[in-house]
Structures are given as C-alpha cells and as structure tokens.
Amino acid sequence: MRPARQIMPLVFASPHSGSHYSADFLAEARLDPVALRRSEDSFVDELFAAAPAMGAPLLAATFPRVFCDANREPWELDPAMFDGPLPAWVNTASPRVGAGLGTIARVVATGEPVYRHKLAFADAEARVRDYWQPYHAALSALIEETRAAFGACLLVDCHSMPTHPVQGSPPADIVLGDAHGTSCAPRATRLVEETLSAMGYRVRRNDPYAGGYVTRHYGVPREGVHALQVEIARRLYMDEARVARGAGLGRMQRDVGRLLDVLAETDWGFLRG
Fold it and tell me: Per CATH, the architecture of 10-266 is what?
C-alpha cells in the first residue's frame, strides 16, 4: 500500500500478519485453523494501516507465517520435516531450525507439529519461490526507492508478541529491537521509545526480541538503511485464545497513528550519517 506521495524516508512492513490459508495447506495440516493462526501476528497490518495516508508505504504479507516465514533466511529448513535428503547448501543448523521455526515451520508457537506427513523438498522450493522471494523483492524495491529519494531509509518491521506465563512483572507492552544498537541509528530508536513511553506504554529494548532476519539483513546504517523491529503485546488489542480483534484495537490504532504523526514531523537528515 503506497502513499499518494511519500513524504518521509520510512517503510513499514508486516511479514507475519498474513491470514490467507489455502485449502491444500489446511488439508496437509494436522491442526485446526485457530491453532494455526496463533502463529500469526494477527491484525498488525491493521494497526499500521494509517501509514500510507501519513506518507509512507506499508508492505504486508498475505500468506501466513506458519506456511512460509518471511522473517527467516530463505533456506532455513529442518531435515526431519522432509521425505528425502536436503541439498547441502540448505541451512539445517540454525537455532530457529532447532526450535522448529525455520522458513517452513515444523511446529506452531505452542510446540505442536504442523503436518500430518513429511514434505517434499519441492514444496519448500515452491513456497520460497512463490512467496518468500516476491515479498523480499517488494521490500528491497521499497527500501531502494526510499533511499534514492531521501538519501536514507528507516525500515520499521512490525510484529506482535504473545503473552507467556513466565513473563516478568510487569511485562513489556512494546519491545523495540535494533540488534543491540547495530541495525538502526540510536537516535531513531530513542525517538520511538520516548514517544511510546510518553503515551504510557512500558517499552523495552532488545529483550527478549532483538530483531530477526529482516532487521539484521536490511539494517546496515553505514549504507544509509536502518531497521527497527517493533513488537506489540497482543493482549493490548486482541483476544489471543480466539485470534479475534479485541476491545483495545481501536485505541492501539490511534496510538500508532500518534506515533506516525511524530515520525512524519521528524527531520530525518541524521539517518544519512
């Protein structure tokens, strides 16, 4: 979703809010649709839907995270999921693969296996080709267009975080991830942090989410591209058990809109170094 005219060097992206589940995928899965949907960052694209009207593009995946995860390397695959050997160049040893959460997830967020049977490697190839690669081609193009127009780009990678019984007290409302200061200008992270804190939100940095593949891959400040991951607590705006919009959705949208107002009024010259 593009603005009529881009007025700020920001790109917003939501790689995990997709909710289109094909009939073929649902037939392969051993879990019901609600269990599958709990792996989504549901409604995050709606929280940031005002970005184009404010002058910045918003890219949102329509395919679900459990089907193909755009916040992973393209070939992080668990060999135990497949009915034959994987090519030697596939990354089978990352911590994400070990947790069952590679490019093609073996389990959902609750740890339950996704599939009734093993997959063919051709299935993974098709998903990477038809979903992962187009998403990243679009994201790369938006970043390059923005950097060309403004001299720099700040990518805001938009996510949500589930409630965990073992979370500290009080739990964070929002976690900002800048790969421990390496993916984004500290001034930009601080601006977002201070704006959200002033609204009354408990904001943490890099704990427990410092940024995934998107943040670390695209965030190269010395090249004029900064990336900041934003994780919003699902309890603030949705019913996590039913995967349904909650009473707080409207307020969260308004507060994200207030953040966008601040970002639209910011002089971003400092991103150019």
Answer: 3-Layer(aba) Sandwich (3.40)
Radius of gyration from C-alpha coordinates of the chain: 18
Cβ(13)–Cβ(158) below 8 Å: yes
What is the residue whose two structure tokens read 């009734």? 116
Q: What is the mean pLDDT of the chain?
A: 96
Farthest-apart Cα atoms in the chain, separation? 54
Q: Between vectors from CA 129 to CA 108 and to CA 139, what angle results, nearest 5°?
A: 85
Q: Is the pTM of this model over 0.85?
A: yes
pLDDT at 66 exceeding the cut of 60: yes
Angle between helices 249-265 and 186-198 in degrees, nearest 10: 140
Q: Where are the domains of the chain?
A: 10-266
Structure letter (DSSP) for residue 221: G
Instruction: Report pLDDT for 273.
Output: 77
Cis peptide before 170 (omega within 30 of 0): yes
Helices (H), the chain: 23-28, 33-37, 44-47, 51-54, 95-98, 121-127, 133-150, 186-198, 213-218, 249-265
Q: Alpha-carbon distance 77 to 121, whole Å?
A: 9
Rounded to an integer, what distance in angstroms lies between the CA atom of residue 78 and that of residue 2?
36
CA–CA distance, 174 with 197 (Å, rounded to integer): 9
In the chain, % helix, strand, coil (3-state, to 5) comes to 40, 20, 45
- Select from 9, 16, 10 the least CA-distant residue to 135: 16
CB atoms within 10 A of CB 73: 19
Let me know: does 255 contact 174? Beta carbons within 8 Å.
Answer: no
Instruction: Using DSSP bridges, classify how beta strands 174-177 and 203-205 pair: parallel, antiparallel or unpaired.
Output: parallel
One-letter amino acid identity for 30?
A: R
- What span, in angstroms and rounded, lies between the C-alpha atoms of 211 and 141? 21
